[in-house]
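Hey team,

Filing this mostly as a record. A colleague (T.K.) asked me to run one chain through the structure pipeline before their review meeting, and I want the input and output archived in the tracker in case anyone asks later how it was produced. No errors, nothing strange. Just documentation.

Input sequence:
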Amino acid sequence: MFIGHYAPAFVGKTIAKTVPLWVLFAAVQLVDIGWGVFIATGVEHVRIIDGFTASNDFDLYDMPWTHSLLMAAIWAIVAGYVWSLIARSDKRTGGLVVGAAVFSHWLIDLLVHVPDLALFPGSEIKLGFGIWNNAPLAIGLELAFILIGMTLYVTSTTPKSTLGKVWPFVGGGLLIALYGVGMTVAPPPDMVAVGASSIGMYLIMCGIAAVFDATRDAQ
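Output structure:
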């Protein structure tokens, strides 16, 4: 899943109003940012197989340090703790929400991945409900998640200016457009490019979230 991961970020902002939305955007994709680094450096591995699932061509057969259940929980605990240290206010609530945002990535991946999510590094047991094998259902879930999350966010914030009134439509449109690009463009030719392009996409998403932060106030 791609833009569906950002739904918990929008929901998290309604709970922890002092945590910037761009931080939550980074949190929900933190394990994938780590995956991008590990793929580019050869720590984890992926194969590109044409038509591997109905939704994408990635055989994610080796990613125990970012996408196993145990490691996702560790990433979440560490991220939440770090935020509680650096936050200026609402340290406990902010830390819990950031940690939950990080772990939400694994829970959402569990729905769509084929069984490639290990319980822990070295585990032979791998989980995944495989919704990626049903492209219309996978796309529908992506759009439903992001629309529900954005709706909750918009109803709990107020615009600072005219841009704040229109940005939910512009920003939401950009998220969906980038998702469409990712679904239709051929994968990069090598693993370094796969990792770099993934990280670049997540940074763009954080930029979109930063505009939400700049143009809307939490109620």
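Quick notes for T.K.: The chain has a mean pLDDT of 94. Residues 125 and 202 are 29 Å apart (CA to CA).
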